[in-house]
Amino acid sequence: MRHWIKIMGLTLAANAAGSAQTTWQGLSFGWPMGQVKEALLHKGFHLVPNSVPGRQGWDLEPVFDLKLNPTLHLTPNLVFDSSDKLERVTLILATKQHSAEGMEPSLLAMFAGRLVQPELSAKYGVPVSKAGTCDSVSSSDLIGGPGYVKCEVVWKAEGQSISLEWSCYEGPKMLLFSISYKPISSGL
Q: Is 76 in contact with 55 (CB distance < 8 Å)?
């Protein structure tokens, strides 16, 4: 009887440990901050409190380079819940770094959107929703065009949703670009 209780206990522990959804860079939603820090340290990243007003969580240093042509520099931002468990991962385009390398924000929007969306579709399948000018944006839309373009695409994978969101405001030449990974609660 003890043998069966021990086996049941190990099985339940394994199931509980395996229930956390693996997401970006092998992290799992629900991991405590210490475990996340340890896993990221092995990959050469450090968690630092972000200094951007209005942004929650922690940023990773150095930036993450997504090897596309051209390479996209992204600042990973991690948000933890009130019990310090990983709740969300958002990759934010490092626009200042790209600007320093001579890439105009409007052209960066076009390149980033056209490069990342097919990569995410190849990994997660057909999007469950898409809104905006995601597939039809052109350089003339961004340079001297309507002045504002926006794209939102959402995929669902096992236990998580992945969203690609970007918008470009030509007037102030401002680009917002992010890829977010969030757990999907089992009750939904």
A: no
**0.90 exceeded by pTM:** no
Domain parsing of the chain, residue ranges: 23-183
Handedness of CA 83, 86, 87, 91 (dihedral sign): positive
Q: What is the pLDDT of residues 54-77, one digit of tens each?
A: 777 899 999 899 888 788 899 999
Give the residue among 83, 88, 95 at the shortest CA–CA distance from 24: 88
Alpha carbon distances (Å) from 40 to 15, 21, 26, 67, 115: 24, 17, 9, 19, 26
What tokens were used for 149? Answer: 């373009």
Strands annotated E in 30-159 = 46-49, 58-61, 64-66, 72-80, 86-93, 129-132, 148-157
